[in-house]
UniProtKB/TrEMBL annotation:
Pfam families: 2OG-FeII_Oxy, DIOX_N. Belongs to the iron/ascorbate-dependent oxidoreductase family. One of its GO terms (molecular function) is metal ion binding. The keyword Iron applies. Residues 203-303 form the Fe2OG dioxygenase domain. Keywords: Iron, Metal-binding, Oxidoreductase. The lineage of its organism: Eukaryota, Viridiplantae, Streptophyta, Embryophyta, Tracheophyta. It comes from Liquidambar formosana (Formosan gum). This is Fe2OG dioxygenase domain-containing protein. PANTHER family: OXOGLUTARATE/IRON-DEPENDENT DIOXYGENASE (PTHR47991).
Amino acid sequence: MTMNSQFIHSPFNMSCVKGLLESGSLTSLPSEYAFPTSPDDIKFSQEEVIPTIDFSLLTSGTPHQRSKVVQDIGEACCEWGFFMVINHGVSERLRDEMVKVCQSFFDLTEEEKREYAGKQLLDPVRWGTSFNVNVDKTLFWRDYLKVHVHPHFHAPHLPTEFGDISREYCKRSQEVASELLRGISESLGLEASYIHKTMEMELGHQLLVVNCYPPCPQPEVAMGMPPHSDHGLLTLLMQNEICGLQVLHHGNWVPVNPLPNAFLVNTGDHMEIVTNGKYRSVVHRAVLNNKATRISIATGHGPPLDATVSPAPELIDSQSHPPAYRGIKYREYMELQQSKPLHGKTCLNHVRL
């Protein structure tokens, strides 16, 4: 892929939404961003609230408290595939610094950011817009920065402080994810270290994804990110003070309003594969507003790229719970997802038996 091919479909020859908005030439929403509506778009539930998990009780609570939290994690994974984590120990200072340095990246000049444009899926640092403009039927009102941060750490060289801040933040988010995976393993009736060992998480793949959703002139027409599920085992997400995440739960879109200083955590497609469908990945989307820029920072946690992910033998029963998914290399799954329009759980359907 050439550098320019990543952006040939963008209106006004602008390479990103932020640049389009700041060009001064935008008077209405370009037709390329008009997202098709569906009956699902009118189903909302303001009453439902995603579960909250107190991380401190998982790591330093009494045996009874830990047992109760493990049970709560299992119920959250089974019922929602999404939960909030509080008292996780990642300092507010570090979280604030991470948000600020990510905002500073998107504030770089077009020329400075373009160094990372049009790269391949597994290149260390990649900046772009929409999801994959070569296959997207509708462009999404979103610019992104994707950085592979484990097992080998990478970072853009600008802003200069990005490397140090993101290294510390990604390390701390990985520690939180590791403890949550222990709780999830126990909730499945397995040893606490089961997922960590079988998925070789010491060498696992961690991807930092920073999303920038600028104000949109017609937020009810465009979409930040379409309904989709994530690859990997777990995704940890934080954001600035602007909300926009919605979770599909029992056919309703539930707006997520995170508690201060909380992480949002969701199970990914590979958690569904490993658990043979007991814990399912959850469909979610990002909606827009016309007043402020939303920044979301996600770290995706998965096995090594060359690991083959299959249902855990301990969760298979030939009579009542036969294998529901075929094994697939993590790298192959990521490439498959990137090569097709992002839509619901269509990628996972390729490995269903």
